[in-house]
Amino acid sequence: MKIAVVGSYGVGLTMRVPRFPSAGETVSGGSFASEHGGKGSNQAIGAARLGARVSFLTAIGDDAHGSAARELWTREGVDAERVLTAQGPTMVGFIEVDPSGENRIAIAPGALDELDADAVEAFRPEIEGADVLVVSMEIPRAAVAAALRIGRLCGTRTLLNPAPARRLPDEVWADIDVITPNQTEAPVLLGLVADHGLDDVALATMLQQRTGGCAILTRGGHGALIADAEGVRPVQAHAVANVVDTTGAGDSFTAALAVGLATGRSIDAAAELAAAAGAHAVTVAGVIPSLPTAEQLGLPRPTQNGEAR
Question: How many helices (H) and strands (E) does the chain have?
Fold first, then answer.
């Protein structure tokens, strides 16, 4: 089971606040923590913890944050041989989390702006050798498009987690096998106005029609919707007694979905596994600590070569 991931790495600077401040307002009484982040890195680690052999491509700075990232990937069993050391600083994300677990995030991309199509082309052998290619959108659009195009040409199943959302060029849609936006991201991808008036079923259907493959619209505590050639159907949410932090839920969902597909599960079974992973993630503070292991999701324990037993 091999997964290739093209995406971001960054340092998450998290402030837990009594409430979100209004414009121009200062709110005191919070707590601060610095941790590893970036959607691509989170997804690569999430997939590795679930037993996949993972190759990862991103760009980091020649700085302390970049060195810490390489130590993290070695520790988590992620192959980062192709990671680019760029001229700019490692990405930093500023995260606010309120007592309900909701979050707001702002990002300074830094080194990620240097991740280009040439770097992705050098990653082609890893994409070609993978069962699933996972791409997220905290990287330049040219890198996103190149990765999906190479995946299509290599015959590797492509999974796009379109976050943060922006409109995609028309030619990119045909290279996406599975797309996984949330309710906020879907209208942006489709170029819809804010008051579009469409329900979730309509949004999922439109996304599926654009790709010709499968769209999974994630809906937080309301589960998800799968839209493919067989129609639209729900993925039930897993009940969570205490939501601590939603920050890592989407990346946990994506990683588990990729693992499910790479192991030959149907899209429905893979989405059910992803829902379980996302539900686990919201019960644990912090992104990396919240990414579940195979044992925590009741999966066979992986061996050293990444195969389950």
Answer: 11, 15
Cα angle for residues 215, 182, 211 (degrees, 5° grid): 25
Closest CA to 7 of 67, 61, 60: 60
Q: What is the pLDDT of residue 93?
A: 85
Q: Are 306 and 53 in contact (CB under 8 A)?
A: yes
- Cα gap 142→102, rounded to integer Å: 31
Question: Rounded CA gap, 206 and 190, in Å?
Answer: 8
- What H or E segment, with its residue span, contains residue 108? strand 103-108
pLDDT of residue 140: 96
**Active-site amino acid positions:** 251
Instruction: Give the separation between CA 204 and CA 214, rounded to whole angstroms.
Output: 9
Which pair of structure tokens corresponds to residue 269?
């079974």
Low-confidence ranges of the chain (pLDDT < 50): 304, 306, 308-309
Q: What is the rounded distance in angstroms from the CA atom of residue 109 to the CA atom of residue 156?
A: 28
CA-derived radius of gyration, the chain: 18
Is the pTM of the predicted complex or chain greater than 0.85?
A: yes
Alpha-carbon span 108 to 111, nearest angstrom: 9
Task: Give dist(CA 51, CA 302) in Å, integer.
Answer: 5
Report the pLDDT value the prediction gives residue 309, as an integer from 0 to 100: 40
Tokens of 302: 């992986």
Residues 6+ apart with CB under 8 A from 134: 3, 4, 5, 6, 7, 40, 43, 44, 47, 159, 161, 254, 255, 258
Looking at residue 258, what is its pLDDT? Answer: 98
pLDDT at 106: 85
Closest CA to 58 of 85, 18, 34: 85
Residues 6+ apart with CB under 8 A from 200: 183, 217, 219, 225
For residue 206, count other CB atoms closer than 10 A to its CB: 18
pLDDT of residue 302: 58
